[in-house]
Design brief:
Shape: globular
Structural class: alpha+beta
Length: about 290
């Protein structure tokens, strides 16, 4: 099946690109198109205009800014993020994640920004970026705003981004401790995934922790009880402390039932993946402050 007829524009500046996609949603930004073009061919998505952003400068850069934060351009492909020296040095778990997204074709042309903006529940990057406490920078006719990764996805295939807002980059603090990620896959997509990031004091107690579970509902969810029990916990006591609260924490997750499995099955997988993350994190040398 072919998509409905549409015009094609290729602006050279972000301002031109935003102007080409009006607030009524008559146009759509396009870069890798791994999700968008398939949906258009199936006529699930219609647009009067595709606005190609591949020529826009600065959207494919990865750098450490003056605030000691890592900035990843929204047009960076999964392949480029996986191979980037800065990401491999400071967030090897993100490099590994991107190296294993979907298949080689998707990794070569699919972008992290497109992945986030499509809002597909069974995706890898949203869970990791939520655990990293990332901010997503949106630029539109009214200016620029930052949205927490936790709040960006509103529902299945739905985000808080306005039609005429362009996601320009993802920004997150440079990790000061281990970042881990595990998933269970059904085909090319995760059925459940768990990401965790923590940092440790000089006395080997955890001073900050973020845990997110994804692919179980429209957007990643925190395991708040696990995060709370980790704060101030000694590394030697982490496993036993989590085991006390884990069942209750998993029970609070809002889990859907779909072709990837039932709710109880997904909760069980989330618990298994979390404990595997914990085993890796406890043994990591970057626990040392």
């Amino acid at each position: 099946m072919l998509p409905s007829p549409f015009a094609f524009e290729k602006p050279t500046t972000i301002t031109e690109a935003i102007a080409a996609v009006d607030e009524e949603g008559d146009g759509m930004f396009y870069s890798g198109g791994t999700e968008l073009l398939l949906a258009m061919k199936m006529r699930v998505i219609h647009t009067k205009r595709l606005v190609d952003i591949k020529a826009l400068p600065g959207l494919d850069l990865i750098a450490l800014n003056d605030a000691n934060e890592i900035e990843v351009g929204a047009r960076c492909t999964h392949k480029n993020i996986a191979a980037n020296a800065l990401i491999r040095q400071h967030v090897p778990a993100l490099s590994s994640l991107c190296a294993n997204v979907a298949n080689v074709r998707v990794r070569s042309v699919g972008t992290v920004g497109g992945n986030l903006c499509f809002g597909e529940p069974h995706a890898d990057p949203p869970t990791m970026l939520a655990a990293l406490n990332a901010r997503l920078m949106l630029q539109g006719p009214k200016g620029t705003r930052a949205v927490c990764a936790d709040d960006f996805i509103r529902g299945e295939l739905e985000t808080v981004r306005e039609p005429d807002e362009l996601l320009t980059k993802i920004v997150f603090p440079r990790p000061t401790g281990p970042v881990t990620y595990r998933r269970f896959k059904h085909g090319e997509r995760p059925s459940v995934n768990v990401a965790m990031a923590w940092s440790v004091d000089a006395d080997s107690t955890i001073k900050a922790a973020r845990v997110r579970v994804g692919a179980i509902g429209p957007r990643p969810q925190p395991l708040k009880a696990v995060e709370d029990v980790l704060l101030g916990c000694a590394l030697a006591d982490v496993r036993s402390a989590i085991e006390v609260v884990l069942d209750a924490a998993l029970g609070e997750l809002d889990v859907n039932q779909d072709r990837h499995g039932g709710a109880d099955y997904k909760r069980h997988l989330a618990g298994v993946l979390l404990m595997r993350n914990v085993e890796e994190a406890v043994s990591r040398r970057d626990n040392l402050p």
